[in-house]
Amino acid sequence: MTADPIKQALQRLPYGFYAITSRNGEEVNAMVGNWLTQVSFEPRMVLFALAQNAYTHEVVSLGHVFAINIFNKEDSDHIKPYTKARAKNPTKMEVAPWMPAPVTGCPILEGAAAVIECRMSDLIDVGGGHDLLIGEVVNAVILKPGDEHTSLTLPHMGWNYAG
After folding, report:
1. Mean pLDDT, to the nearest integer, of 126-134?
2. Using H for helix, E for strand and C for coil, what is the string for the chain?
3. Residue 2 reports pLDDT greater than 70
4. Is residue 110 part of a domain?
5. In a domain, 125, yes or no
6. Could you tell me the pTM of the whole model?
7. Which domain range does residue 147 map to?
8. How many domains does the structure of the chain reveal?
9. Residue 162 in domain
10. Hey, how many other C-beta atoms are within 10 angstroms of the C-beta on 103?
11. Could you tell me the CATH number of the domain that includes residue 146?
């Protein structure tokens, strides 16, 4: 048992592990994230908890588009270059192999199995270190076969971001 049962319980929530890409004109970025869920069927909408100090926060705030790059477990090496913040790796997008998504122009990263393109609907400050980014799904691209069982998860990486 831990001295913090709330933390222990929160760490039991299952999370995927994604690369969130964004675009504002010629400026593009990619970051990793895991606090993501679908929140509406009609229209199809997703919610992502976006760190306020993330460079992506600025890019999405100005560009109003983002994409969720979903990787299969066996392609986990492809997501690792995006785990460092822009401040620690300012040239990551200059050397990253990517192509523009058809609707938003956000980066589709090499190795992604599927990509969900979104237009920002709202960015809500909830008084914590993360804002709630709500996006309407405007397109999806399937690049490799897979499903929820083959998709990369935070536990598969041996990491935890909860509590």
Report:
1. 96
2. CCCCHHHHHHCCCCCECEEEEEEECCEEEEEEECCEEEEECCCCEEEEEEECCCHHHHHHHHHCEEEEEECEHHHHHHCHHHCCCCCCCCCHHHHCCEEECCCCCCEEECCCCEEEEEEEEEEEECCCCEEEEEEEEEEEEECCCCCCCCECEHHHHCCCCCC
3. no
4. yes
5. yes
6. 0.95
7. 5-157
8. 1
9. no
10. 15
11. 2.30.110.10
